[in-house]
Amino acid sequence: MSLTEDLGILVQRGAHYSLQADVLAELPHFLHDVAFGASLPPKDPDFLYADLHLHIPRTASMRRVIEEISPRVDICAIVTREPKYDSDGGYLDFDTAVKKLKREEIPIAHENNRFVLAGDPGNQIYFVRAIEVYGKEGQELVIVGNDTEFRDNRVNDTPLDDLITEADDLGSLWFLDHPMIIGAPVISFRYPTQAEEKRLRGWIESHHPLVETGNHQSTLYMYPSNVAMRKIAAEYGLPQITNSDSHFRLQEIGLSRTGIPLRTVDGNHLIKRNSGDAFITSLRRGLEISPRVRLESGYSSAWAFGQYMVLPTILWKLGMYKAARRIRGIQD
């Protein structure tokens, strides 16, 4: 679509979602976070807290990552992108993260192709292989716990239904991320048209998917998208997940997170770690226990979003690649 068309849809559909009662009820929470930043209660020892949609800079120290995020999360996905969207090589991938853990002599308690459990006793993090991909229609999918890398530019030519089949074949956990946000070339994001929302509902009816209803970067003019997706998820009885979608800012990882019960109702440990397959299967099962899952979602502050999302995007479009990388902390 043209810039004019994207702007028209942004305004028209934005007004449609923004004037709904549940969006207005969310306004005080949004205004607090956008002005002062999100805040969270301490972790409940009866839960494991997961952030499965985030991006870490390739040059980050894994020891610093663990020190920064362990007070907020227990399970952290290492989400890379297909090469087309990682032209500067800035995204940390799982295999590189494991090499860095070993190089920094960080203890590893469990290791396989799907996850590692790393860190000093009492301060351990599950790091999980993951990737964010676009389907042919433009809807994004986060694939978590795949046992091999999925970095292939051809996925952009693959219909979402086929990508979901491939994700299932890999034995992974997957979810639709920020489904009520559509990428736009110049303004970056807009709301879905009526036809695009109808298409989303078609995928929901076909797959009954896990959906991201809290995305920390859905802030400023896009904050109603989280509330709108929660409403749709409730309508269909979908399992939900909330994530930070942090782009290289370690301090935001876990500020939106999902709490998974440590034990089942009969007292057994819910998360299994005896194998990669068992871990991902149990993680999926835990996220689907909807009444007991804790969804703790906030919004990126205007300052953080401006520095780590808006400014680097502008610099990149202007061809100022080194400056964009430097702001995001991607330096060798």
What is the alpha-carbon Rg in Å? 19 Å
Major sheet details:
11 strands, mixed
Tell me the domain tally.
Answer: 1
Annotation field: number of helices? 10
Strand content: 15-25%
CATH homologous superfamily placement: Metal-dependent hydrolases
H-E string = HHEHEHEEEEHEEEHEHEEHEHH
CATH second-level architecture: Alpha-Beta Barrel
Average pLDDT for all residues: 91
Can you tell me the CATH class? Alpha Beta
Poorly predicted tracts of residues: none
**Proportion of residues in helical segments:** 25-40%
How does this model look, in words?
This protein is α/β, with parallel strands linked by helices. The protein has a single domain (3-327), classed as Metal-dependent hydrolases (TIM Barrel), CATH 3.20.20.140. 37% of the residues lie in helices and 19% in strands. The chain is built from ten helices and 13 strands. Strands 1, 2, 3, 4, 5, 6, 7, 10, 11, 12 and 13 form an eleven-stranded mixed beta sheet that branches. It has a two-stranded antiparallel sheet with strand order 8-9. Strand 10, helix 7 (224-236) and strand 11 (240-243) form a beta-alpha-beta unit. Helix 9 runs antiparallel to helix 10. The longest helix has 16 residues, at 3-18. It is globular.
